[in-house]
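$ fold --in a.seq
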Amino acid sequence: METIFRTLDIPKNHQITFTLPRSIPIGKAEMVLVIHPTLVASAVSKDEALLKLAGTLKSSSNFSGDSVQLQRKMRQEWDG
């Protein structure tokens, strides 16, 4: 699993394209796209911005089920 962070401007046509690093293997993959509008620094602190994301993955099929089993699976990916 690899995390890629990019900041970009959303154009009027709402279409974006990007090139993945060569380290990403060819084939099927799951991808999660999180859209977080840029915040005005003085309006919201970083802590408040983080709290706004709380619970956003609650209904995700990737993070549902037994939380202990999910953590074990994630650790196996790190060790593997």
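$ fold --in b.seq
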Amino acid sequence: MNILQVISSNVAGGRELFCVPVSVKLKEKGHKVSIMCRKGSPVEAEALRRGLDVISTGFNWYFNPLEILRAAKALRKGRFEIIHSHWTRDLSNLIVAAALAGGVPIVCTKHVYSTTPKKDLFHAWVAGRIRFMMCVCELVRKNLLDTMPIAPAKVVTVYNGIDAKEEWRPGKYGGSFRKENGIGENDFLVCMAGRINSGKGQHVLVAAAKKVLGLHPESMFVFAGRPEGAEEEKYYQELLAVVKEAGLEEKIRFLGFRSDLPKVVDSSDAVVMCSVFETFGLVLIQGMAMEKPVIGTNAGGVPEIISDAGNGLLFNYGDQEKLAALLLWLIENPEKRKMLGAAARRTVEEKFELTDTVKAIEKIYLACVKAR
């Protein structure tokens, strides 16, 4: 098949970057795959790094006439058989472009939870013109059916997956991140990855880290990710000020965006996610694939990933005392830590392997192409 993946968002989040490994895997299976994204975006950089074909788009709202015409031209030129959108905001532009290009079928992955009903005529028009909505977890599937006027037969759950066989393989990177950053082999290293913003909750881990370091000064905390926009930059500067005031710049480090995140996670002893609400939590399965004990907030789609005390640990958002206690328990119970990591890896192999995710997506593509 000739496949076009589309994401016009200009940030470096899980929703945005997920299309890249999916495209790589589809390409390995013999399909022709291109990614339509914004010029200069993190998606473009990662796609080019992975050797994928990139088409630029200027989509920035629900209806961009000039960009629609450009997209329609690209669709005709590329002879695409299926369009896979990763942002619902792009759908209205794509629906018109696809119609102008001869009726290319469109599917969409719904990565986020909707907090408001969208049952107006516009959303009914959108829902009636896409073939399938793939939701990243059951929570999102149920939420979509509750908030959008779409036929249940068009809505399926396809869990996000990662390449646990190769890219996210325990020990693959040999602790190189520690060596490169002067972190001792016996230091307890905690990793948190994601955009720097209050919703992701980096301040919660910083507060817990201060408590942990008071008892275990050999611990280290690293944050991978960057802020996007003025509000998030302000939050980031406030975090830096808190760390500096505590004199912990060497123990609590902000790494910026990392294209080599697997290497960082591989060197870590635990992975933490502190989001107030996360529909999926890709970083959790990344940590789990590396056989790391993971700690996540007991909200959103996280309980579909973590079974508390089975393959990871849960705490309520904002409870820095509980988070600190869980981290201390991991530090002081290395055997339990190992058991959680092993169970976490099994969960990924059984439920969140990218090969299985791509098989499910490919099956949906084929159904759409055959029905065209």
